Amino acid sequence: MTGRTSDGPSREAVRDRLDRVTDPELDRSIVELEYVDAIEIDGDRVTVHVTLPTAWCSPAFAWMMTSDAREEVERLPGVARTRVFLREHMHDAEINRGVNAGLPFEDAFPDADGAVDAVRAELDRKARIARQYDAVEALLEAGLNPETIVSLRPRDLERTNRGDRVAVYLADRAVGVSVPAAPIDDYLEKARETGAVDAPTDVLFRTPEGEPIDPEAFDLVHRRARLTQVNMSGQGGICDGLREAREKRLERTPSVRRRSGLLLDFE
Questions:
Q1: What is the pLDDT of residues 104-133, one digit of tens each?
Q2: Strands (E), the chain
Q3: pLDDT in tens, 191-205
Q4: 165 phi and psi, to 5 degrees?
Q5: Which DSSP letter does residue 154 get?
Q6: Is 177 in a helix, a strand, or coil?
Q7: Which of 21, 27, 106, 247 could form a disulfide with 127 if both were Cys (CB 3.0 to 4.6 A apart)?
Q8: What does each C-alpha distance from 213 to 130, 152, 169, 218, 220 come to in angstroms?
Q9: What is the Cα Rg of the chain in Å?
Q10: Phi, then psi, of 7 in degrees rounded to 5
Q11: Tell me, what's the pLDDT at 115?
């Protein structure tokens, strides 16, 4: 499956690319969160329309999502140009103009403190810690103790024939423990993306500051990870509520939706 039609990329391929873009504050896909209103394909040109839960979402967060969406779709074979349009945001004019012109954030927002790199790095750090909580919980449920967990390295993990399980090898591979693959995969994806884990011999889990975990500090680090995950989940609940309120408001004014054709295009 190439993800292409004779006229350009398929809608499914574009949607799959957008599914890789996350709300950086929630670490959840913008497709899953239903931020994507419409995908329009005209030959090798793709246009994506996006609405966030609130007009007051941080301009830096909104910029990251729209610019990431543009970059992801433009990686598809057969796509010559992608434009992403943010709607109903207090800074949608600046963001749409800047993102679609390929400008850096600081050029679109000259009054901002600087680039979004530092903001993105901090949000990625929180996402890594939240995902680490889920991965460590899976290992604890499988019966591994804290001393073993903090000593694990990527080389100790191996995908099983089932595909949805990972074998964790201990005692010089004399013992293998099977755990669900999903939380481990999710954590490794973000850990590698942020540089926390690179080589097969690197320590797998780290403190929020990026240091190896002292076994005696395991409980404290795990509690901090849980707190991070709870905070992100709480923000997600707020955003879900705002999105539902927005949808209800749009349902009460269907002419807005029909005029733009956005909802029908995506469905």
A1: 999 999 888 777 999 999 999 999 999 999
A2: 4-5, 8-9, 22-23, 28-29, 36-42, 45-51, 81-87, 157-159, 165-170, 175-180
A3: 999 999 999 999 999
A4: -130, 155
A5: G
A6: strand
A7: 27
A8: 16, 11, 20, 6, 10
A9: 21
A10: -100, -5
A11: 79
